[in-house]
Amino acid sequence: MALLLLGLFFLLGSLSTKWKKQLKEQIGVAQQQGGQRAVPNVLANGLVPALLGWGAWWLEAPEPWVWPMLAAAVASATSDTVSSELGSLYGRQFWDVRTGRRGQRGADGAISVEGTAYGALASGLIGVACGIWLDDWRLAGLVALCGLLGNIADSLLGAFLQRSGWLNNHTVNFWSTAVAAGLAYLLWGIP
């Protein structure tokens, strides 16, 4: 299941990054290096799910909370990537989550209704894949919710800590996936 979810993340992330790339370059919101992700990007978005997947493999019979945590972390990474890529392109009005006032397109912590909707859709797709694989629709909803909340955590961390220089984009991405995994544990893992 972990490889399926990671594959879906890479597919959705790549498609949303390449979507109308020239227009993104014109308006100044395109990913650097032509959208190519480097090792720090992979680690930032994939370390939490990788550690959980390794733990599941090592345990052979993982605890029931491992899969929801892993899926929520992937849903968060997917939600963040898709909402950033498509929200910066299609967003009409942006708000700064720190001040509640108008924000600037592409700024850390600036969100739009359109971007949030794309993020919710992306997180939901990861949830649906998880629900189909494990035949558990309650889990699908939990994964989708935790993924979206991880995306919101990413915006808050970006607005408060990245803009202040305490964190960079990679550490913000790492912590947002960890937040999503932690929320999944709290909501699913505690009996």
Please give the largest β-sheet: 2 strands, antiparallel
Number of domains: 1
The run of helices and strands is HHHHEEHHH
Number of E strands: 2
Write a short abstract of this structure.
The protein is an all-alpha fold and 191 residues long. The chain has helices spanning 2-18, 21-27, 39-59, 66-90, 113-134, 137-162, 169-189; strands at residues 95-96, 110-111.
Key phrases:
mainly alpha, two-stranded antiparallel ribbon, 191 residues
Would you give an account of this structure?
With 191 residues, this protein is mainly alpha-helical. The chain has one domain (2-18, 42-189). Helices cover 73% and strands 2% of the residues. The chain has helices spanning 2-18, 21-27, 39-59, 66-90, 113-134, 137-162, 169-189, and strands at 95-96, 110-111. The chain has a two-stranded antiparallel sheet with strand order 1-2. Helix 4 crosses helix 6 (137-162) and helix 4 (66-90) packs across helix 7. The longest helix is centred in the C-terminal third of the chain and has 26 residues, at 137-162.
